Amino acid sequence: MKKSGIIGLLIAIGLLSFVVFFASKNNGSTLKKQLHDFSIEDTASITKVVLNDKNGNRLVLSRMSASEWSVKSEDQDFKARQDVVQNMLKTIKELTVRAPVSKARFDYTVKQIAANSTKVAIYQNGENSPSKVYYVGGANGENTGTFMLLEKSSVPFLMHIEGHYGFIQSRYSPRMNDWRDNAIWYFPGEKITGIKNLKVEYPQEPTKSFEISKNSESEYTLKDGNGNPVAVPDMGGIYEYLKRYRTISYEGFEENRTKVYCDSLLLETPIKTVWTLEDDKGNITEIKSYLKPAKLDAEDWEGNAIPHDLERMYATINNDQLVIIQFFVFDPLTVSLEEFIAPS
Prior knowledge:
Number of strands: 20
Structural class: alpha+beta
Radius of gyration: 30 Å
Helix content: 10-25%
Shape: elongated
Order of helices and strands: HEEEEHEHEEEEEEEEEHEEHEEEEH
Strand content: 25-35%
Strand order of the largest sheet: 4-3-2-1-6-7-8-9-5
Number of helices: 6
């Protein structure tokens, strides 16, 4: 065979090998994509996410509008915290494979996911069937990734988000308290005029109590704790006080104590302050605050015992849900009648 023929044959073989190599590589990539295709690029198309774990916790997150979601669990239905929802959607979009599960750890990881994981079902475009379902397990030993498994697959992967150090299992929590909106009052901007009536009561110091009622868009009446009108020099002090209610939230829930303990504590502890606010739509929210016991053996700088938490209080919302509030947030709302009256 001539030298030119040999060269041509080698080139042909090389080209054939090149085609076969990349064809097989692409087929392999397609298969791998099917096994670790957890992410969804178009999160705006997601209309519902259902989360449930092995302990019987289950909740449904539903899109109400472009920027508002609700969270529902059994007979409870609340507005969802939008920042937490957005964090979950960001996670769904940016999930990437950090590493495949090693052969030595493979069986153990599969068993762990089967025994302790959160099932995530994602629905898009209002469809009745989920477009993607996967299981979120625990983190690896270094907390650099989270083990996840797609439904109908037997191959788990260690997933993460680029630039994020830590596990992401908590972003798929099926616990209601992790999603429920913690806003008590929200009157952004000029919506503060939506406050129709506000009563602030101090059961242990009734002379400090007062009530503010709206007469018009710019006029209010101030009353004492007995409902008697009180003259004020101008409306400025009342305006400034009402503006403090624009964004008021509770910190969280008491999850370290039993319900029996909390119920008995509230019966034994005197009410500190009561805020009752009615908006122009007729919605009434009542907040009762109680001093929160300090940690056992808590002391100040001089070694004196501290009986109550100096940073947080307990509170009930409409005599129902027990929450934790911060003095930092509520101190500006805790003023007395005298502060609205000009000094004599």
